[in-house]
């Protein structure tokens, strides 16, 4: 990733908090197993696995998005995806749910569509799009 001087990933403190919650839930599972509460053990175990999966995702897939003169690199569970500036289409999508606006950055190339939110990027997708647009303009000029 040396060719990608600009990158975005989940904020490190968010990932650390997710790991801390996972450990607390693990302690809760152990406590519930000792107490014999089967239903509570199952529910707490599911919560622990869910938060742990998110923490692992935030730890292993860093950076989620990187950009440089050659194009974009996006890391997903399915592997790393590289797109040149000429083949990558960038756009913002704003959706309103429960009275709140949510902004995501979409990177589209051919049949591939990758969607990044604020948590994925560690900052506002609008700011990321501004940087990507500037880099794309420099690379294509």
Automatic annotation (TrEMBL):
- Which keywords fit this entry according to its UniProt record? Membrane, Transmembrane, Transmembrane helix
List the transmembrane segments.
12-34, 40-61
Q: What species is given as this protein's source? A: Amycolatopsis oliviviridis
Q: Which residues form the Low molecular weight protein antigen 6 PH domain?
A: 62-136
UniProt xrefs under Pfam families: bPH_6
- InterPro entries (UniProt xref): CFP-6_PH
Kindly provide the name given to this protein in its UniProt entry.
Answer: Low molecular weight protein antigen 6 PH domain-containing protein
